Fold these 4 entries.
Entry 1:
Amino acid sequence: MLISSRTLAEYRAMFELTDADLAGAILDCAAGGSSFVAELGDRAEAVATDPAYERPVEELARVLRSDRSQCVKMTVDHGNEFVWDWYGTPERRDQLRQEAAERFLADRAARPERYRPASLPELPFADDAFDLVLCSHLLFTWAGPLDRAWHAAAITELIRVSRGEVRLYPLVHRGAGDPVPFLGELAEEVRAAGHRWTERAVDFRFQRRAGVMAVITK
């Protein structure tokens, strides 16, 4: 799986984040090389988690450069499935990736306690630890290698560590953005467990079919 870097501006658009959303305890799960926590600084009690954080900073820097190239190749291979309204140009998107990676690497070196190595579906946090849990480009994006049972366990774990909301984006496969056949079943299981699952259109769209996020209210 790719380790990608995204900015706070992208997170705001993907998850419809307001200033009020960014005021509490926040978990960025499967954060990769994103600069979300770095850019928030001390404005929020934000923590990022990713299995890649087991690696030293120097190795992560090399991986991020390599994976950035693979992301560029994917947009070429599936060119008709991407829209550039939000980014403007491929060059601008790549520039944001580079800036996010640099901020992430600097912050991980300066504040390592904010970056916890962990993998879904098991997270090293207490029940109800976060006001808001964000997960981008993992669930559903990788619904090929990660099956339905994994997704169900991952969603259960994200809900466990939340005391407010879990927001998931996008809700389609990577690349061409094909629909995920078990998405509706998982939504019904969340509702049957007593939580609220809603799907909301967002202003951010890069994959042509990916303009919707899921919001789970505990």
Entry 2:
Amino acid sequence: MPYKELDRHKMRFKSLRERKNKVHIEEDHVPPTAEPRALSDSGKKIVRETVERLVTAREKKRSRMLTFGAHSIKNGLAPVFTKLIEDGWITHLATNGAGIIHDWEFAFQGHSSEDVRANVDRGEFGVWDETGFFINLAILIGAYQGLGYGESVGALVEKEGLQIPSEETLKYTIKESVESDAELAAAAADVLAQVRAFNLEPGWMRVPHPYKRFGLQSAAYRLKVPYTSHPMIGHDIIYVHPMNHCAAIGRAAQRDFLTFANNVTNLNDGVYLSVGSAVMSPMIFEKSLSMAQNLAIQADWHIDSHFMVIVDLQESHWDWSQGEPPDTNPDYYLRYNKTFARMGGTMRYLSADNRDFLLTLVQELEKA
């Protein structure tokens, strides 16, 4: 007997306008000129080393990748990230599904971050129509167009709308491409299913984003800097909404992962920054580096001179330049540090607030 699934169409959704939020981007955004709190002496040394490595990596046209958790966006740091890509210091941004959601909500309505405890109790956590509808629809259309997850949402924000294909166009695409391009046929079928389920009118769907000047995704899309998302099914509030179609999520996220991995192939003499991402960043990096090494070894070389800076709040009492500690040491269980310590190259760990690290970094780069 098959498992019984929950029917999301039976749920009652509320407008995002009704939600109380904790962060308001106009008041809470962090400009690149804001004064950071002073880092420790070792932290300042790591920042200086990072600046030197970024300068060298840019001169050599190597990858400069910045992977971050959702709190960096919730903390209002999008203007700082935007400064880094505008000035050419960072060539790839990567985050998780929550990072995409907060950035989109800021661009769409200017505020984000709900009260999880209270809203779960009321059956309202994540049950917000616009967030679930528009982000899922953007990914659905983007996957059909061959875009990645982050790129799809960035296009929605920057263009302030979506082009909805007609049923006739989708049916024609399925019929004509099923033999020559089965992936396109399947993506068209995904869109067709949701166009019918939600009775979507073909043509341009206008979706204003009055606060998109604070949107990192739109800035990355405009500047043509890869901004990839690396989600996990069920981890984010967009999965609550019936517009969610996980086949499309998979198509777009696969493109993002392979884009990420491709940029890791150019990481020799490059820089990898991991800021406040204890799970996603180390997990996708170790697989991507293994794939990149596989290809490099076939070409008779090896990725050895990559520079990794890991930033998180957790204090560590181990010198990670000496490798990983024994399993009798509590620091052994700082999983993200242990993972990066196994990745070759040079690793530095800095215990600091993401705001203080990123502000210090962007201001030191101004002097470089």
Entry 3:
Amino acid sequence: MVIYHLPALLNESIAGLNLRPEGIYVDVTFGGGGHSRAILDQLTSGRLIAFDQDTDAAANTITDEQFTLLNQNFRYLKNNLRFLGITAINGLIADLGVSFHQFDEQERGFSFRSDAELDMRMNRNAQVKASDILRTYEEEKLADVFYKYGELTNSRKLASAIVKARTTRPVKTVSDLMAALSGLFPSWEENKFYARLFQSLRIEVNHEMEALTEMLQQALELLKPGGRLAVITYHSLEDRLVKNFIRTGNFEGESDKDFYGNVTAPLRAVNRKVIVPTEEEIAENSRSRSARLRIAEKL
């Protein structure tokens, strides 16, 4: 049996939502449906709305009158809920990153471990693939993507090598990209290097950081006082953004203060220390190793 996805930190994130049996909840990253099923198990008269922009996720839909799956990007959270007549929610969960299915389907181009076209679209109806970015972006813009989203310090050399390579043949596949960048990183750091490089391209293709900031702002508006937000991140860029938002209500991490100098924030961190997988979970699911869970409650 092929597993679509194993949800990371499942028990911890569901417990963090502090579920009410009659509440209205949102799972903005449905995927294989692991978190959604766990939420539905605790609802009686409540309701769960799930989002996933990847049409493949529809194969995992749940037959339950309390459940609705929307084939939508979570950046359109508020408008889609309004269409369903929902203006306030009791909790929201987001398990960010790439599903097992997306990584393991070779033709999706998310993994550097198999040769395929560099696609990386979460939404297969989107127009721009990673190969299009490598083909059309100017050198400076490519370097910015690698530095900003992959934190690669030799981003300018990488961009220059790609621009040079594409003058003779397209940099369209995983093997094309590897050939263009040969010798530009230490051999013992190959996996780490390509993980960061592919991360940067994937984030750019799917506008992930913009979508995340828009979703979090809308989630804050929708949450009822006492409502919970649970977000699982997989790299430092996401985690820093979520941490700042929970701590200060903005993404810069700059605290607002009232007339008396007291810090004001719309959310309260439920877990003061970020929650990480146990050694047992990592042994069962090695891909959960980089997962980081933050939980907040609306004041």
Entry 4:
Amino acid sequence: MSIWEALIPILALVGMLFYNVYFAFGDDALSGSNQFILLLGAAVAAIVGFFNKVSYKQMMEEIAKNVKSTTGALLILLMVGSLAGTWLISGIIPTMIYYGLQILNPTIFLAACVIICAIISIATGSSWTTSATVGIALIGIGDTLGISLGMTAGAVISGAYFGDKMSPLSDTTNLAPAMAGGELFSHIKYMTYTTVPTVIVTLIVFIIIGLTIDTSGTPEIDQQLQAINSAFTISPWLFIVPIIVIGLIIKKTPPLIALLAGTLLGGIAAIIAQPEIVTAIAGSDSLNFNSAYVGVMKAMTVDTAVETSSKELNDLFTAGGMSGMLGTIWLIVCAMVFGGVMDAIGALARISKALLSLFDSVFGLFASTVASCLALNLTASDQYLAIVVPGRMYAKAFKDKGLAPENLSRTLEDSGTVTSVLVPWNTCGAYQSGVLGVPVVDYFFFAIFNWLSPFTTLLFAAFKIKIKQLKDS
């Protein structure tokens, strides 16, 4: 197969995605149309395969192999959805937000924005939700203090994306190791090597900026704190549940078991700490065994929302349960179909070989992965596809170089997830600028964590810092 034949499905996929996002569905493209376009891309790849004497049976066998390889990731996603539901109704997530909001200080306001948004994004697993709720509030507070909207937006986005990357509840954090063939908690642990230094540099820069600019007034957060306090029973005792889960992870408990334990403990905590919320979700008048069972089960499986007196916070206190993860699962399955056909016809191997001939070193492999992620963010306009397509393209190349899948999954996140918000026509850039009311060009420079992350991962690759090797069986 020639390199041009191998590129036909990729070019067709990018072209279809471009039309789908720009002219047809816009931000709604992730609701299903992008997933179907991955299947259309697979059909184009299959046609190329037929011309190269690859049988339908071979393609289906490779698809089945690919989908099977993601079984663990799909189950983890379902469990993550259920955990998010029970941690919401138990008050664990609201408690994290409640204490996070109290670290505001005018002098270190920008650095505090990073920390607050990081805490909330880790708790919720969503940078989008964080920006659309607490982010908007922080933009307003920063404006009253006389701080540039671009600075505040950059700090909000930096913290939100750091938390999103480090949260096991995040769909992109689950997607990256699924594409690379790695494991969730190992991926998160390996990401800390590049992510933590990057966020520390970000905080230092914002502290310096905060010390050199004039601020006036004090941030008003009493309304938000009161809204949380009136809707939930806030207690530091609720931190026992996440501490137990973290302990299980440190003890190298399998992810499914750790998440299941966190989900069940969250359900028990909800019954003890928030009986009124459990009863309301169950649609019952009193708490008994049946209403407790129904309330917790609903939180685990379907959409759940807890209303507060603050409209800004209401979107934050929603969870989709297992059903909320079905869109990401759908995306993974369709990506595996596309990747399976591309593997079967030899296209991914041919493209990887061509790229590696340009960059034969280990650093070159990392650099080409970063470049591919950035190119997909610019052309396909979607962070998920900037993870999915390079993930399938480079999985075998990293393995052939003797590199563990954590190297690839970390690079996908460092260059695919975080840079999407820096592209105005990307779904992430359009969403964040629209929600925060700040153009991308205004916050681009101050989204320090986001544009610094790809440089950090390349720096680690250049000096061979924490480059994990595959272990001999």
